[in-house]
């Protein structure tokens, strides 16, 4: 099967037009009429494709590249083969993302499973008290409960369940199999397949007969332009709210505990677990498979390296890593010392043999 079976090449746009739309500069004026139809990685890009490089590590891949254009910054222009036109950009990754969005707009959101063009499928259940604005699409087997409100242009995917009283803003996509309850959702939010939003959090009190469940009567508030990945869970608050701030992007398979408050424009990568009542500031980046303790604060702009264990507060703007997470300089020193000790033991063992 060819690479582009699910997202075939587009009719195309001229290189000059594409450059203007993504804020890049075509260095070869004669190449402006070349037609760009798709995006591709450097090593297998062919005519009609555009690709990008960010470092000199792409030098070997350029040997097999036959792209119609390559995006890069000025410092890397000399690496590009002479037969390939260059698009200069101070932020080539951002420019490439814009190019991809222009060429494949339908790939930016989960696509409908059924050919329904608009309206509510006859195979869906929508409670009579639910209020849907214009141009809302509800796919087969979706269930929309009592007193739900859904804004114009939003889509509810096949098999999704929207619990009673939920509010969903305009231009949202709730993909197939997702479940949403006890939640208020802003505009232009994307929730991918199988996500679980608003179920009760993990709260118990020990008693003589075992663990007693603590009721979870808060909400989940998801602000505008948030994206939540497949099979991610966001628990509702115990008594207060769990909040996901504007523009934050959350990967697949992330666990957000009850009462967690995540700021604006954060990035949280797959398999992160954030325990209850933690506060995450604006612009925080958390690498994959991190565990974040409950009742702590991660300050604005902090960065947490992948596979770290965050046990205590992280100051704003700091880079932390390791288990337990600590300032990156300290973590790297500890790693270097451990490697040195390991090598020393190997050498001593070899001499003893």
Protein model, in words:
With 353 residues, this protein is of the alpha/beta class. It has a domain at 13-108: 3-Layer(aba) Sandwich (Udp-n-acetylmuramoylalanyl-d-glutamate--2,6- Diaminopimelate Ligase, Chain: A, domain 1). The protein has 3 helices and 39 strands. The strands form 6 sheets. The chain has an 11-stranded mixed beta sheet with strand order 10-13-16-19-24-27-30-33-36-38-39, with helices on one face. The chain is flat and about 75 Å long. The termini are far apart. The mean pLDDT is 94. GO terms for molecular function: N-acyltransferase activity; UDP-3-O-[(3R)-3-hydroxyacyl]-glucosamine N-acyltransferase activity. Pfam families: Hexapep, Hexapep_2, LpxD. One of its GO terms (biological process) is lipid A biosynthetic process. Belongs to the transferase hexapeptide repeat family. LpxD subfamily. Residues 34-101 form the UDP-3-O-[3-hydroxymyristoyl] glucosamine N-acyltransferase non-repeat region domain.
């Amino acid at each position: 099967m060819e690479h582009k079976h699910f997202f075939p090449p587009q009719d195309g746009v001229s290189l000059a037009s594409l450059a203007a739309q993504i804020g890049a500069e075509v260095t070869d004026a004669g190449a402006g009429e070349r037609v760009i139809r798709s995006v591709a990685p450097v090593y297998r890009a062919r005519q009609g494709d555009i690709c990008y490089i960010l470092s000199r590590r792409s030098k070997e891949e350029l040997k097999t590249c036959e792209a119609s254009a390559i995006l890069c910054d000025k410092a890397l222009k000399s690496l590009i083969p002479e037969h390939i036109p260059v698009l200069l950009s101070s932020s080539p990754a951002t420019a490439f993302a814009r190019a991809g969005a222009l060429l494949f707009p339908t790939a930016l959101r989960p696509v409908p499973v059924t050919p329904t063009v608009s309206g509510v499928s006859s195979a869906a259940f929508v409670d009579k008290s639910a209020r849907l604005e214009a141009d809302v699409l509800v796919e087969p087997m979706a269930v929309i409960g009592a007193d739900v409100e859904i804004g114009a242009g939003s889509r509810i995917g096949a098999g999704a369940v929207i619990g009673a009283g939920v509010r969903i803003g305009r231009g949202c996509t709730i993909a197939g199999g997702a479940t949403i309850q006890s939640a208020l959702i802003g505009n232009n939010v994307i929730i991918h397949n199988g996500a679980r939003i608003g179920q009760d959090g993990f709260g118990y009190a020990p008693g003589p007969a075992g663990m007693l469940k603590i009721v979870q009567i808060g909400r989940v508030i998801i602000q505008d332009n948030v994206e939540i990945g497949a099979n991610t869970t966001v628990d509702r608050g115990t008594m207060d709210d769990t909040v996901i701030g504007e523009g934050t992007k959350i990967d697949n398979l992330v666990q957000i505990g009850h009462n967690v408050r995540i700021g604006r424009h954060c990035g949280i990568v797959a398999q992160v677990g954030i325990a209850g009542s933690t506060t995450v500031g604006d612009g925080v980046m958390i690498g994959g498979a991190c565990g974040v303790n409950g009742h702590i604060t991660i300050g604005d702009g902090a960065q947490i390296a992948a596979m770290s264990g965050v046990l205590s507060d992280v100051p704003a703007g700091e880079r932390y890593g390791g288990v337990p997470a600590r300032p990156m300089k300290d973590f790297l020193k500890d790693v270097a010392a451990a490697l040195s000790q390991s090598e020393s033991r190997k050498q001593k063992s070899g001499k003893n043999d």
